[in-house]
Amino acid sequence: MRRSIRQQRDRFSLYLLFGLFVLLPLTVVFGHKGVAPWLLLASLPAFVRGDFWQSAFGQLFDQPDLRKPFFFGFAAIIFFCFWIFLSGFWSPGGAPSLALYVLAPVLIGGSVVWFSLHLTRTWTYRLAYAYAVSIAAGLAVLLIEGLSDGALRGMLPPEDPSPNRAKDIIALGRGVTALAPAIFPAAIIVSFLWNRYASLALLALGVGAAFFNDVSANAVAILTGLVIAIIAFKAPHKTIVATGWALIVLLLLAPLAALLPVDQIFQSADGVLPPSWLHRVAVWQSVAARIPEGLPFGFGADFARAWQGAGSMVNVPGVAAPLELIPTHPHNVFLQIWLELGLPGVLSFTAFIYCGMKVLVMANPTKPVVAALVGVIAAIAISMSVEGSLWQVWRMAAMALAGMGTALAYSFQRSWMQQSK
User: Fold this and answer.
1) Distance (Å, rounded) from C-alpha 41 to C-alpha 36?
2) pLDDT at 421
3) Are residues 208 and 143 in contact, defined by beta-carbon separation less than 8 angstroms?
4) Are 316 and 282 in contact (CB under 8 A)?
5) 154, burial (CB in 10 Å: exposed 0-12, middle 13-18, buried 19+)
């Protein structure tokens, strides 16, 4: 009887995931923020299994040891979230609940990764296949939308009266952002299922969707991830270490943006860089210049939104009207951590990255999985550096979606290799 109940539960869980993979392309096209509730639903199959609680949390708390990178990394990210909670009490924005914006995707993302690592051989194949097809379908529809000026979105209310349907096109760009990190594990899965040419076709599809949907950061992220992934095939271990240290350096040196010569950049890059990128240069310089004033504890979670109310403006080349010097967030997660969370946030996040790097090295994944992994990290790093925010849950969910795909690629190759022996 108990075995029958278990079988029904597992069958329902897997059918639920199949249904979610069918919905994912529609989600990224019609509402990129829906990736967050999508991830929540995808986590249910793990949360209803007793072995998840025993295995995942049992490994953490049965023998807690700060000398173990996995436990120390978990403790670091939990402290990071706790510090967000505390900082909300002195932030002008007063938002302790923002801690959940990071904590929930971390825990839920961990659950879908765990589930993807604990599947039978048959269901590993089926879900990996579904994941790859879903990502490819999402990119294909986004490419069609970019080429057709948002034809599908134009069929749904409310009507967008803006010139060239600007709001809809930007939303489609965010849809590409949600899928960009997931391209790399999907491409590796495709190479396992078919061949490298199909994998390259998927990557080309992603690049096309990025170029035709008006968010240039997506194209940069995908191309950067592709370069790092190629390098990983030559030196997998060193690439993991180098990628991890690159993230740490980006975080620790972020305040040096205060030295950016904004006026000179405006003069030399006018007509070369898009106005949106020039605007970011001014934002980054202004945010970095204010960081020392808030040290050591930072100004508190969501301070940038309160700072925005000061109404400071900047004239950006190529834009007729002045733009806000401080938007709702700094468009750089590393600067945001320094500004709002201070040294405790910086140090705990650095510890999380370092421990994550150690865990991945100790796991010793195969070259294709390493390529997928570092491609994901590189794409996320670019997004974090030029447009991301800690308080956008859908971005965190997109990271977890890519993590799920990487875990499926790992499980798929492990099962395939065992079967071929």
Assistant:
1) 9
2) 47
3) yes
4) yes
5) middle
